[in-house]
Amino acid sequence: MNNPKDRIQELVDLLNKYNYEYYTLDKPSVSDQEYDRLMQELMKLESMYPELILSNSPTSRVGGKVNDSFKKITHEIPLLSLSNVFTESDIITFDNRIRKENIIPKYVCELKIDGLSVSLRYKDGKLLYAATRGNGIIGEDITDNVKTIKTIPLTLTKPIDIEVRGEIYISKKTLLEINEQRRKDNLEPFKNARNLAAGSIRQLDSKIAAERHLDAFIYHLPNPMDYGINTHFEALNFMKELGFVTNPNNRLVDGIDGILSYIDEKTKLRETLPYDIDGVVIKLNNILDQMKLGSTVKYPKWATAYKFPPEEVITKLKYIIFTVGRTGQVTPNAILEPVNVMGSTISKTTLHNEDYCKEKDIRVGDYVVIIKAGDVIPRVESVKKERRIEDLPEFKMCSNCPICNTPLIKKDSNYYCPNLKCDARHIEGLIHFSSREAMNITGLGERIVEDLYNLGYVKTIVDFYHLDKYKNDLMLLEGYGEKSIQNLLDEIEKSKQNSLEKLIFALGIRHVGAKTATILARKYLDLDNLINSSEEELSDIPDIGEEISKSVYNYFQDDHNLEIINKLKELGVNTKYLGKSIDNPNIKDKSFVITGTLNIKRDDLKDKIITNGGKVIDSVSKKTDYVILGENPGSKYDKAIKLGIKILNEKEIFEMLNE
């Protein structure tokens, strides 16, 4: 047998070399089986000769050492935080402040990994200790746990003394695997990867840390000029040469345009990354310029972090109002202290109905969590009951119409105003008729419709097409110029040429949305055919259930509704389907879910899919054929990945549409 001391040294050197090739260079030179065989040999030798175990042995990555507590470590150079910016304007201000110092900046943009900071100190190329940020001056010694992270080298490629800083994180895949096991063990799953990483690195038993499969990226060299390095980008490459894993998305850019382009690109890729990011870090590249700018007590002046808009935020519910829709349905709405959610300022959101408010125990004065459902619609997701500091009154549904004071009636989970002459119902119906998805009359916003109703010029949808009679009267009103009125009248005239599906949706038939209207238009081609259809015939149409067919049939049995339709015909409003019916084999009978922001309007894409024989549905399930992915996708994307559903980008869906 070879000298065990020499063989242990040989195995440690070999395995650390293979770790470097695998984790840093992404170019393994041996198979997993060969690596495992050598590791088993080393573990056997170390068990036989524990006095020969080396401090940089890769076997330390399996953990097992238990600490009573964490020692304190003082950072020789303070480990500062970063200031935050949230908008393009903030970034421009940051850039202007640097340019005022007569600096022509180049920046390095990096992904802001959502984990926890770590400082690593090496002596003669071997890991001496690892410490948390702590308060920036004093951190905690987490060396034993950091040794379990395979992406952090125990021995560098050069025998130098150095300190580097980075971020410890846990991948999305690892989080899913750990939570799946915890559910099987009837344990509470971890809420997010950052909390799991932070909790894992502070385990007193390093074996637990090893089981969590932590990862790390190194992003900062505190004293680069000591190594003859003059730029941050050079420092990143230098650290990579030493064996550290740096993020492959780091990029050197010129000025504001380069920063904004990087942010835009990485925002689109955010959900596809294997780890969580919560923003982009922007650093001045030149080290002398960094030194010229210096730091505050808390932040370096030469760097900042752009934070992505939050997906959920907490705000206060100031009060609840009740609104009346075109069908008479009365809906509670939350009036909130204004808050930014994913780039939009939200001050109001629907509370749906009485059941929704009671199930979530929503009360005026509560702090509530706001999210964007489907990345578009704001919603009260939950109540922060732990912040309820007083006995707030429980939610109570109104008993009378807030507009006409008629006693409400309850159907299923909703309350309705039964007064067909209620002003609110009429106004909402008129707003709906002129809306973009319906007759698309540009210039007829909610305020103008209300004005026209209150002035007595428009009481029914037919009256829109007689509005030219009041042109001179309207010009006498403040805010109504001759040009704007003529543009409005032109848009009203233009709406007469809309395809049938627009008119069906605009009529406001209960349970008939834009998608159902298109299905009916493609089926019947002419409004008269739809009017003369039977309830049984309607219910046989795919995606038209019993409730919808009954509602459509009853609508056209009402003489008042037929009278309105006949008047629209007399005025020249088109009642025929003008779209193309295409049996596209790529699309026909396939179901699509759209998530995120697209370059094309979402409604236009829906129309194209439906015209080609496909279906657009709201939620992802096993029956979904495709998910179309835009910018900033939400939970639908995560669910699609979990179910193995095919993901399409914008280019791919247009190829399927043959456009």
Topology:
Elements: H1 4-24, H2 32-48, E1 72-74, E2 83-85, H3 88-99, E3 106-113, E4 116-123, E5 126-132, E6 138-140, H4 143-146, E7 162-169, H5 172-184, H6 193-201, H7 206-211, E8 215-220, H8 232-241, E9 251-254, H9 255-269, E10 277-284, H10 287-293, E11 303-307, E12 312-324, E13 329-341, E14 344-350, H11 354-359, E15 367-373, E16 377-383, E17 409-411, E18 414-416, H12 423-434, H13 446-454, H14 471-475, H15 482-494, H16 500-506, H17 514-524, H18 527-531, H19 535-539, H20 546-555, H21 559-570, E19 591-595, H22 602-611, E20 615-616, E21 626-629, H23 635-643, E22 646-648, H24 650-656
Parallel strand pairs: 2-11, 19-20, 19-21, 21-22
Antiparallel strand pairs: 1-6, 3-9, 3-10, 4-5, 4-7, 7-8, 10-11, 12-13, 12-15, 13-14, 13-18, 15-16, 17-18
Overall geometry comes to elongated
| CATH topology value of the largest domain | D-amino Acid Aminotransferase, Chain A, domain 1
Number of domains: 6
Q: Summarize the main sheet.
A: 7 strands, antiparallel
Classify the beta-strand content into a percent band.
15-25%
Low-confidence stretches: none
- Known CATH architecture of the largest domain: 2-Layer Sandwich
Structural class: alpha+beta
Number of strands: 22
Q: C-alpha Rg, in Å?
A: 32 Å
Number of helices, where a helix is a run of at least 4 consecutive DSSP H or I residues: 24
CATH H-level homologous superfamily name of the largest domain: DNA ligase/mRNA capping enzyme
**The top level CATH class name of the largest domain:** Alpha Beta
Helix content: 25-40%
Q: Tell me the distance between the termini.
A: 71 Å
Mean pLDDT: 88
